[in-house]
Structure formats: C-alpha cells, structure tokens
Design goal:
The chain has one domain: Leucine-rich repeat, LRR (right-handed beta-alpha superhelix). The protein is about 5% helix and about 10% strand. The chain is built from 2 helices and 8 strands, in the order βββββαβαββ. Strands 1-2-3-4-5-6-7-8 form an 8-stranded mixed beta sheet, covered by helices on one side. It starts with 13 loop residues before the first strand and ends with a strand. About 30% of the residues are buried.
C-alpha cells in the first residue's frame, strides 16, 4: 500500500519496483493485486522467475531487464503475458516460453542465446509477432561449435523457425 499509494489494491493496474529476492521473497504478492496488468522489475536482483510466485497469471506486460536471470523456470505461471522484456540477462534456454500462448512481443537483447535451434521454441508461440535477439551469439553463428560462416544470415534462419514473426530486431522480418 505504501509503494502504490492507494488503500484499495484492486485499483492497481501497473507497478514499478526494484527487488532483491536474495533477501526478501515476494511470496505470492500478486494475490493482493488482482488487477495488476503491468509489472516493471528492471535492475532488480532475481535469482529465478519462481521468486515472483504463482499469482501473476493476470499479468499482460512484464519487464525484467538486467535482473541477473539465468533461466526462465516458473514463467509459465504468468500465463496471460502478451509482452515480455528480459534484455541483458544470462538466458540461453528458451524452452519455458512455449507455455506462453498469448505472447506477442519478446525482447531477448543481450542474453546468452548461442544456438539457433532455441528459436524453434518461439515458433510454438503462435501469436509472437515482435522479437528482439540482437546482442546474442546466435546472431553471429548458428551455434557455439560452428565457425563464423560468411553466408550465415540469422534473420533468414529465425524467420524460417518463427514464420509468424512480423518484426525482428525492430525491422520487418520479411527483410532478410
């Protein structure tokens, strides 16, 4: 109530805060905010997405840039997400995102995605239309073992794996 400035937490639709889940668990704070649609946690310290609890199923937009995340275990409890901004973390495995049926916008800039095959998981997010992956090793070569190939075009490869994509790195996906 102090953070939001309102007595009736049902009125809160958006919240921005910084947390350190090494010291404080958020528990199931989403249960107190039934109408929360947007949550901004940029520059927080989150050991795991699980630290957000399981009561954010009504959330539509989630920002967790620069939070030190190394995996996305637990993201499936945010089942209504339409937009997820998780730039500048240490994420390499995208398999957990397949549970997000409503996902339309995903920002993965500056993570540790090294294998083009990780994009197959995003192909299962049937509503995904905007994706940012620049700043990941996968933009330079298809996987860690392969040498940099002059003919390698990550844009064309991503478009093959995610045919419904409209924008890749803020440029129309059709421009390969």
């Amino acid at each position: 109530k102090v953070l939001t400035g309102v007595d009736d937490l049902r009125q809160v639709k958006a919240l921005e805060m910084q947390v350190d889940t090494r010291e404080n668990s958020l528990g199931n704070f989403g249960a107190y905010l039934p109408n929360l649609r947007e949550l901004k946690l940029n520059n927080s310290l989150l050991v795991s997405v699980r630290d957000l609890g399981t009561t954010l199923s009504h959330l539509h937009v989630l920002w967790m840039a620069r939070c030190g995340l190394s995996d996305l275990d637990g993201i499936s409890s945010c089942s209504s997400l339409k937009e997820l901004y998780i730039a500048y973390n240490n994420i390499s495995d995208l398999s957990q995102l397949t549970w997000l049926d409503h996902l339309e916008v995903l920002d993965l800039e500056g993570n540790d995605i090294e294998d083009i095959n990780q994009m197959q998981y995003l192909g299962l997010c049937c509503k995904l239309s905007r994706l940012t992956v620049e700043g990941n090793l996968v933009c330079l070569k298809p996987n860690v073992e392969s040498p940099e190939e002059p003919g390698y075009n990550y844009r064309a490869e991503v478009k093959k794996l995610i045919p419904q994509l409209e924008y890749l790195d803020e440029i129309p996906a059709s421009q390969t």
